[in-house]
Amino acid sequence: MFQISLKDAGELCLNSVQCKSKCCHRETGLSLARCAPKASENSECSAWTLYGVYYKCPCERGLTCEVDKTIVGSITNTNFGICLDVGSSMRRKKKERRKRRTRSSSCRIMAQRWWRSF
């Protein structure tokens, strides 16, 4: 039976399906593509591509590549983004909102006490 062995980081590749990491990466249009690890949090990334070869690897599992997905960026290979943990950024936003509410309510209480002092 025919058996396919996946390639390790640094080995030459033609498509991401050949790599253990599922990222076949090339530096420039003229360079040879090699298997590379997926992008970690806060690293540059590319959205999924039909071609299977990336200038920036897609994000690790659990992260999202926040990128402008316009057709122009896809054609010119400039649709790079940053890998973000969507869950942690949502928790951070909730925490910030809570802080703002607490600050505004404490200011209101201080103003009420100030007016009562007259």
Automatic annotation (TrEMBL):
Major localisation: secreted
Gene3D superfamilies reported for this sequence: Lipase, subunit A
Keyword vocabulary terms for this entry: Digestion, Disulfide bond, Lipid degradation, Lipid metabolism, Secreted, Signal
Domain of life per record: Eukaryota
Colipase C-terminal domain ranges (all copies): 42-85
Colipase N-terminal domain residues: 8-39
Cellular compartments annotated: Secreted
Matches recorded under Pfam families: Colipase, Colipase_C
InterPro entries: CLPS_chr, Colipase, Colipase_C, Colipase_CS, Colipase_N
Quaternary structure and partners: Forms a 1:1 stoichiometric complex with pancreatic lipase.
Function field: Colipase is a cofactor of pancreatic lipase. It allows the lipase to anchor itself to the lipid-water interface. Without colipase the enzyme is washed off by bile salts, which have an inhibitory effect on the lipase. Enterostatin has a biological activity as a satiety signal.
Protein's name in the database: Colipase isoform X4
Protein's organism: Vicugna pacos
Lineage of origin: Eukaryota, Metazoa, Chordata, Craniata, Vertebrata
